[in-house]
Amino acid sequence: MLLSMTGHGAGSAVGDRLRASAEIRSVNNRFLKIAVRCSDGFGLLDTRIEDHLRGRLKRGTVTVNVRIVRKWSEADIQVNEPLLAGYLQLVRRVGGLGDSAPVDVSALLELPGVLADPSREEADLDAIWPTVLESLDQAVESLEGMRQREGRAMADDLLANLAAIDSELEAIVRRSPLVVESYQTRLTERLQKLLAQHDVQVNATDLIREVGIFADRCDIAEETVRLRSHLTQFRAVIGEAESNGRKLDFITQEMFRETNTIGSKANDSEIAHHVVGVKTTIERIREMVQNIE
């Protein structure tokens, strides 16, 4: 099954006093390049997230955004009661207040160290990780679903292009034997016209030898057989269970090379026309293959 390297996925999960959401975007790249960005205070998770994704993805430029929100309740707010009592005694002593005199408690609570801010506490990454991982895996599954859908569409398009090459190749194979016959006819006519002017006869053996040299020089049988073989291999890779864009890219290069050789050897305008059609189709295939994992 072919997989596109372009896609997008998102996921979210809720844990104990924690909510995590992940978003993944992927575009084509010959290699695997991952960039991770976590919410402030959770940057130490970046490496762990990247390592996990490297086990799930093979190629592409992947951008990952993970947002982590911690939820707090009143029970999480801790009061440093000894420090608060010390502040209270200091206020009474400095202000000359009795023990029963009213004091602005809200002002005391704002003094440094009285209230512990849970948002400033260092996160327990091991406790957070399962929730982050759940959101991340959801995003990866969503991404893979999109890449599979695009991969199926690309496979259909590639097969249609291969069929177009088949059609052009059949026309080339049908035309190939006629090239030598046409050359022999043209050569004979030119020689007869030229020699008649000088009353000279040409040896049939020499004519046959010349035609044989031409036939050998423009023989494209091996190239057409190899091109057919590459088309068969390409279809086989499309049908494999695992996506293999690099292999398809290699086969595409070989197809282009054989087509170039056919064009340079054939020495025929009609075959040249079909070669242009094949090369144009291979270029379309090459562009699509660059986006296959």
Polypeptide structure, described:
By secondary structure, the protein is α+β, with helices and mostly antiparallel strands. The chain has 3 domains: 7-73 and 123-143; 74-118, no CATH class; 150-289, no CATH class. It is built from 8 helices and 6 strands. The chain has helices spanning 45-54, 81-95, 105-109, 125-198, 204-217, 221-238, 245-266, 269-289; strands at 7-15, 18-27, 32-38, 60-70, 78-79, 115-116. The strands form 2 sheets. Strands 1-2-4-3 form a 4-stranded mixed β-sheet, covered by helices on one side. Strands 5-6 form a two-stranded antiparallel sheet. Helix 1 (45-54) links the parallel strand 3 and strand 4 (60-70). The termini are close together.
> Tell me, what's the shape?
rod-shaped
The arrangement of helices and strands along the chain is EEEHEEHHEHHHHH
Low-confidence stretches: none
Largest sheet: 4 strands, mixed
Give the SSE layout.
Blueprint: E1 7-15, E2 18-27, E3 32-38, H1 45-54, E4 60-70, E5 78-79, H2 81-95, H3 105-109, E6 115-116, H4 125-198, H5 204-217, H6 221-238, H7 245-266, H8 269-289
Parallel strand pairs: 3-4
Antiparallel strand pairs: 1-2, 2-4, 5-6
Helix pairs in contact: 4-5, 4-6, 4-8, 6-7, 7-8
In short, what is this structure?
With 293 residues, this protein is of the alpha+beta class. Helix content is 61%, strand content 14%. The protein folds into three domains: 7-73 and 123-143; 74-118, no CATH class; 150-289, no CATH class.
